[in-house]
Amino acid sequence: MSPTPELLEIVRTAMAGERPKLLPLHEPLLLRNEDRSLIDYHDTATTNQMRHELRAQNEAMAGADFGNVLPFPARLRRIFNGDFAHGGRFYAEGGAWQTLSKTERRALRIDGEPVVEIDYATFHPALAYAERGLPPPEAPYEVAGFSRDLVKVAFNILLNSSGRPGARHTIAWKPAMATHLLDVTPHRNELPSAFLRRVYQSDPSYPHRASRCAEELIEKLLARHAPIADLFFSGLGLRLQRLDSDIAEGVMRRMRRHGVVVFPIHDSFLAPASKADLIEEAMVAEAARHGMALSCSRSPFVSDDYA
To answer: What gap in Å lies between CA 75 and CA 95, rounded to an integer?
Structure first.
């Protein structure tokens, strides 16, 4: 393989300490099949409108300065799965701010200002219960004997999976399970696969114990969320992603009208900390437009001077 002239120019610019030029994005609206391969589609008024919104957001983000943490321009693509009723989440090219750790996000600056991250509290339980016309219970990710992080991972897997065995296996091999069972955490920048390989090498009995633990958690989640238990193992998650991505699109559009650029991480947003109140208002209003009364929470990235 050899680098293209465009890649060489980006590297040259970055090494010179300059801001790389934003190259044209051929197609920001993508559709994938079950194998995650891109497939063609015919444009409609809906896809044209979504593409228009994407380009407007990308143009707004292009001028943002993340400092030395993210020297490259920010840009989004929207990816659907199978058809335009499933998926649709916004993904940053190259991962960018979406793949940063909490610690790395604290170092971010947007146009010289500290960032705040605001997210919807217990977003997917709220969406799932809304399918049944019910309010979600308080603290839906609290299950006795399990960490909140693991319960949250498992809840979303149950919504996305099409069967119990597959869900059990997926939960068992999540890093959150290893952290829960063995009280270990990945090294900084360690890939999940490398972390789990290290766990297995240190404890060959881990797969069996993790599978039993996953099954126990599934049972408790089914009991904890009995009113929506029929939605688990139904593959509902991808349809809910279409809804949460539509809400995200609306939030970004509202903020652009205020002259503020936000950077989505699915159900949360990064933005200059001084705009936190305005962003939270937009998020609550957009959720209400879709018929849901949702609350928001803020990250502790910044001091009270910006909160």
So the answer is: 10
Buried b (16+ CB within 10 A) or exposed e, 175-199: bbbbbbbeeeebeeeeeeeebbeeb
Query: Measured on CA atoms in the order 79, 74, 93, 268, is the torsion positive or negative?
Result: negative
Give dist(CA 108, CA 2) in Å, integer: 33
Residue 109 burial by Cβ neighbours in a 10 Å radius (0-12, 13-18, 19+):
middle
In the sheet with 83-92, reading across from the earlier edge strand, the strands are: 29-32, 76-81, 83-92
Retrieve residue 253's tokens: 């559009």
For residue 254, report the phi and psi dihedrals to the nearest 5 degrees: -60, -40
| Beta-strand relationship, 76-81 and 83-92 | antiparallel
CA 267 to chain centre: 6
Long-range contacts of 43-49 (CB under 8 A, 24+ apart): 46/84, 47/84
- 3-class secondary structure, 261: coil
pLDDT digits (tens, 9 = 90+) for 94-118: 888 888 877 777 778 887 888 899 9
Q: Which domains does the chain have, with CATH numbers?
A: 25-124+238-298 (3.30.70), 141-224 (no CATH)
Q: Tens digits of per-residue pLDDT, 195-238? A: 888 888 888 888 999 999 999 999 999 999 999 999 999 988 88
